[in-house]
């Protein structure tokens, strides 16, 4: 019976066998990747260069942009290369690296979104304590904890997943290496340990989600008691982008990993994985910049600076 040590490579899902459609697929992925690089790169540069944005909210947003760049760079370059060179192969080590980094970036991002909910809660519900509770050292510790929790979770899941014997071949029904698809290749009952680890992680993520929801209940109760419409607008402009990110991230990710097998199909799996792995990193910068005048001004100033020096 072959086990995981006898598998030297995996075969990823091919979107199409037609060469023209493969090139079209490459162009689509390239456009999404460039949009994510541009949007998140602008946020990183604007926050780093504009001293007015050196606040806890934008510090966490900078970390979010870094995680988004890492997440989309884990899956898309390999998918683009496979479409361009008409191949499906990914090495065993490359597949393990994809699982490690994907879990790392996603878990760290959700932890960071939880920290950002705490930041919004303190800013709106306890503004007089904002400076003392969210100083630069406290923010650095919370961001480091988010990154560290993601890394530890990623090591746990990668070690569990790739210690499972594989008996069902090496064809992965996904365009990148994903834990549920790897487990489909495992021998009967050998995957139960990783299922247990997944349940533990989902429980922790559910706890984070409850914390976010409770924070927003308090936030909206405080906002509704504000006497001025300007106060309402400022509060909602700070909170709605974050709430939109959480909703997009949680809905697509939970559906991908927790949907019942009865509604699972290769096409649905690909669509859902596309939504949770590519859409958030590409649209997060747009969501945050749409309702954030400070960020718009900083990006506008950055463009003006670049145009001036280009001349």
From TrEMBL:
CDD domains registered for this protein in UniProt: 7tmA_OR14-like
A cellular component annotation (GO) from this entry: plasma membrane
Subcellular location(s) of the protein: Cell membrane
Molecular function terms from GO: G protein-coupled receptor activity; olfactory receptor activity
TM spans (from-to): 23-45, 57-76, 96-118, 195-220, 232-258
Family the entry assigns: Belongs to the G-protein coupled receptor 1 family.
Function (record text): Odorant receptor.
Name of the protein in its database record: Olfactory receptor
Source organism: Anser brachyrhynchus
């Amino acid at each position: 019976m072959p086990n995981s040590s006898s598998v030297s490579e995996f075969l990823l899902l091919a979107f199409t066998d037609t060469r023209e459609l493969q090139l079209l697929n490459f162009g689509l992925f390239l456009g999404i990747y460039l949009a994510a690089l541009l949007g998140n790169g602008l946020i990183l540069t604007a926050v780093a260069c504009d001293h007015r944005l050196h606040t806890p909210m934008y510090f966490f947003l900078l970390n979010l942009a870094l995680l988004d760049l890492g997440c989309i760079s884990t899956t898309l370059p390999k998918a683009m290369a496979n479409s361009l060179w008409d191949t499906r192969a990914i090495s065993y080590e490359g597949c393990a690296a994809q699982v490690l980094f994907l879990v790392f970036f996603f878990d760290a991002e959700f932890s960071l979104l939880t920290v950002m909910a705490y930041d919004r809660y303190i800013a709106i519900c306890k503004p007089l304590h904002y400076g003392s509770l969210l100083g630069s050292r406290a923010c650095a510790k919370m961001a480091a904890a988010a990154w560290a929790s993601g890394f530890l979770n990623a090591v746990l899941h990668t070690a569990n997943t790739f210690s499972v014997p594989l008996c069902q071949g090496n064809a992965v029904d996904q365009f990148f290496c994903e834990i549920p698809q790897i487990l489909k290749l495992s021998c009967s009952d050998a995957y139960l340990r990783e299922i247990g680890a997944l349940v533990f992680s989902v429980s922790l993520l559910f706890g984070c989600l409850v914390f976010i929801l409770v924070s927003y209940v308090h936030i909206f109760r405080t906002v509704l008691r504000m006497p001025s419409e300007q106060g309402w607008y400022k509060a909602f402009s700070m909170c709605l982008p974050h709430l939109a990110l959480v909703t997009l991230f949680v809905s697509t990710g939970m559906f991908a990993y927790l949907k019942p097998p009865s509604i699972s199909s290769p096409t649905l799996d690909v669509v859902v994985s596309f939504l949770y792995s590519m859409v958030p990193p590409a649209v997060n910068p747009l969501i945050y910049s749409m309702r954030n005048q400070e960020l718009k001004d900083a990006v506008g100033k950055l463009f003006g600076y670049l145009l001036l020096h280009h001349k």
